[in-house]
Amino acid sequence: MSTENTQKVTETLARLADAADADAVEAIRIEALGKQGWISALLKTLGKMTPEERQEQAPAIQAMRAQVADAIAARKAELEAAELEARLATETLDLTLPAPTSPKGSVHPVSQVMDELAEIFADLGFAVATGPEIEDDWYNFSALNMPESHPARAMHDTFYFPDTAPKGGKMLLRTHTSPVQVRTMLDTVKRNPGGAPVRIIAPGRVYRSDSDATHTPMFHQVEGLVIDKDIHLGHLKWTLETFLKAFFETEDIVLRLRPSYFPFTEPSVEVDVGFEIVDGKRVLGGSGDAPGHGWMELLGSGMVNRRVIEMSGLDPDEWQGFAFGVGVDRLAMLKYGMDDLRAFFDGDTRWLNHYGFSHLDQPTLSAGVGAKA
Ligand code: PHE
Questions:
Q1: Given a cut of 50, is residue 174 above it in pLDDT?
Q2: How many domains does the chain have?
Q3: Of 90, 124, 145, which closes a domain?
Q4: Ligand 1 atom with the shortest distance to the CA of 206
Q5: pTM higher than 0.85 for the full model?
Q6: Exposed, middle or buried: residue 124 (CB in 10 Å: 0-12, 13-18, 19+)?
Q7: What is the SS3 assignment for 161?
Q8: Which single residue of 18, 20, 41, 209 could bond 157 by disulfide (Cβ 3.0 to 4.6 Å)?
Q9: Is residue 126 part of a domain?
Q10: Residues 80, 153 within the same domain
């Protein structure tokens, strides 16, 4: 091998030893072993040699290539090790720092309250029933003793679909959860032709064309229905009182039952609850007739009208019961202190973070109705 080439190798090795970083090493590699590199050029000359010349020169050229390639790999590894060393020396990890947080969803107050209601009523022996939100006129109105010409229909601001309903009239968005009463009774009769006791609550969405601070076109109700033999208003009052005490977590709940009118209950009872104004806010408790107190309308209820029992396939001389319907959103507002119903359905994550519940929270009353904290 020519001294010229030997010298070039020595020079290359010296430059490699001085190369400060990976870029410098790469530049040297390209110069020697790249497509246009001088060692690559030497390798190409082998092809033009006679077999004898090649036999004589090839080993030296190959050895030169290997020597330079090895030196490059070694210097690269050296630089990488040094870099890692330097990083380890300067980088520290503070294990006392809080872990990074990721965004977390929350349970909507309406869902939370529905869970609480299911829990409370489960303790009282009530099952949860459901029905469709797109409802047949017959279940929403007619079977609830509101035939087509009934004036009470006008109070419901109903959203109708153009489709004709199987049982007559139009399909509609249910305006209350009361059609679940009818569906549940019909279902019960189907399974027990002679009739059977019913104890259900039916929570769900309902729809009315209405919108202001306390009304939204979609809102939530929970229906209650008890059918049995010898059920009377006293059972209704006890059930509502027990439910409200458990829900608001206070023994200080005073109810006032006022005569009212619903086509599907007879007699019908509007239930008010006593409250007191504390720091400008309504706080439940005490008789509404006491000084500084008032009555707040809370829910509609009554003894199920015998015509509804009859239309649901039960014998009203044998079976009777009570029903009630209450706004779930309203219950949530009263218990958790929101004042604008519209914010419930805006989907503003700041509101949800403030009023939402952790999915790990158990309903507050898992210890049961009447349990003391
Ligand atoms: N469905 C009635 C409403 O939406 C409430 C109600 C339910 C009244 C059950 C009596 C019995 O206003």
A1: yes
A2: 2
A3: 90
A4: 4
A5: no
A6: middle
A7: strand
A8: 209
A9: yes
A10: no
